[in-house]
Amino acid sequence: MAKEEGSHWSHVLKRRIAILEKDERNEEEKKAEETELFTKYYTEWRSGVETDESYKTIPRFYYKLPAEDEVLLQKLREESRAVFLQRKSRELLDNEELQNLWFLLDKHQVPPVSGDEAMINYEAFLQVGEKAGPKCRNFFTARVYSKLLHNDPYGRISIMQFFNYVMRKVWLHQTRIGLSLYDVAGQGYLRESDLENYILELIPTLPQLDGLEKSFYSFYVCTAVRKFFFFLDPLRTGKIKIQDILACSFLDDLLELRDEELSKESQESNWFSAPSALRVYGQYLNLDKDHNGMLSKEELSRYGTATLTSVFLDRVFQECLTYDGEMDYKTYLDFVLALENRKEPAALQYIFKLLDMENLGYLNVFSLNFFFRAIQEQMKLHGQEPVFFQDVKDEIFDMVKPKDPYKITLQDLVNSCQGDTVVSILIDLNGFWTYENREVLVANDDSSNTVDLDET
């Protein structure tokens, strides 16, 4: 027994030594092979001979846009894009197919009714998907169903919610295709002229704009386009991604004008409505006292309640595009959009650039004091006792709570949700007065609400 065990261990040991010797030989062979290959490739590189052509199998992923003088290539590109977009358009559900989908959903509703809404469970949902046709296949998935699944005790979803989801998706794709037709470069964005053409051709399809004179079309288009570019092109590149246009609510507001029974309140709050566009353009004409089609600083000073400080207006004319020291309608629209939407980051960015005189990227005590001195001067002119800057400065820093206790950045203003109040305090006497008397104004509102309640 012991002899057999000794023989076994001897055999194992010999085999182990043989493996180690083999590994050593392999290492030597590997080093020799490595040296040989290095010498070969190094010699080929030094001699300039290229033998590796594997790069030729890499698929091409960049195609240079045709130059302006390459008319044939441009036409070919336009035609191929048009054919592609037409094919994509045919893949979408048309009105008849949407009606058929609604009929199938209604036919497969599962009781009991939840409130006023018809419901459908997952099994019936899949049955409708099989009957609805290939165009609907992407809508009838577990992922879509789970998105619309809320608190139904039977695990069902609302038929109306699902149908609205489908309608919204179809509308988005239709609009994407419609906007892409104006994308001359075919790069997924629209230039200012592209968006102008889109809106100009859209006007006849919007019943709420039927009353506009054709002579006003160019001013209307300029007014509409500026809102898109002011908010969606903060770096002023001169182009907007079609994706960004679809993601924001502006296009919804514009297409809301298809509703022939749009309320007066909705029209007044919609930047793209005829009354709104006429209001903005009318204000511009009223400010233009010398009727030269441009606004001087003195003319712009009467904007709104005529309480913007002269220091702030100086900065507007220093930083914004002017012609011989006067502002055109397009620049005026940016100015109006900034002051009417002071809570929005794009508007705060516009005003912050004007307040940041030294282009430091932040506001310090010096810059705050510089602008507030103009507010104090206006208060004196109106016979009011000026407020001490130290008090206002402390309140501003308390409101904003910047990361650096001595500097207020644009991001600090945005994060604080008090940016509109801060800039109003610094540039507009009326804005400062509203802030100073906020408690009185709130008390007056409360008392008027109490009276209304008592009367009812």
UniProtKB/TrEMBL annotation:
Q: What GO biological process terms are annotated to this protein in UniProt? A: B cell homeostasis; cortical cytoskeleton organization; microtubule cytoskeleton organization; positive regulation of B cell differentiation; regulation of dephosphorylation; T cell homeostasis
Species name = Crenichthys baileyi
Q: What is the top-level taxon of the source organism? A: Eukaryota
Question: Sorted alphabetically, which Pfam families does this protein's record hold?
Answer: EF-hand_13
The main location class comes to cytoplasm
GO terms for MF: metal ion binding
Where it sits in the cell: the answer is: Cytoplasm; Nucleus
Alphabetically sorted, this entry's keywords are: Calcium, Cytoplasm, Metal-binding, Nucleus, Repeat
Task: List the transmembrane segments.
Answer: none
Q: Which residue ranges does the record assign to the PP2A regulatory subunit B'' EF-hand domain? A: 184-260
> What CDD domains does the record point to?
PPP2R3C (cd21505)
Tell me what this protein is called: Serine/threonine-protein phosphatase 2A regulatory subunit B'' subunit gamma
**Which GO CC annotations does the UniProt entry carry?**
centrosome; cytoplasm; nucleus; spindle
